[in-house]
């Protein structure tokens, strides 16, 4: 007698990149239905992590890194990375953030624009949300926020689209990383057919 296979979600396991002055934990994806897709996703993760570390890698700089699984649901994987570097003699270290969002079925690496219908409606909705958050939470700015772009870094959670900016991009160092999580309820009307937002909203 044969039993149907359980529809299990992918496993995400930590891997350590440890060498002189570098100690970075990054994710490895296992358990995908398509081995070629799994291999492609893991190769791009390693490449992105390396490219975050490479510009800061020298004998005077200590680099540490970690990741967060923001979403692993409905064949969508969204990962968020923080790389912290401190150069000897500097006043303080710097944190750089990045994110990757994939289809676990096809291996597609989504850009923000891929999630939405053509046009700028989604950009206007996100801009308005961010500006209202800045105002209502009295977030200190070093320069005025104007707009995101169609290639804006983002991540997905079960209920929200996360938009974030780098240290010093709009806020002082002491504020940390500015993050804005927009509910899917505000965005689902502009989501493209087949968009992860359609699956999650």
Automatic annotation (TrEMBL):
Name of this protein: DUF3298 domain-containing protein
UniProt domain Deacetylase PdaC: residue ranges: 19-95
Top-level taxon: Bacteria
Coiled coil segments of this chain: none
Organism expressing this protein natively: Fictibacillus aquaticus
Start and end residues of each DUF3298 domain: 113-184
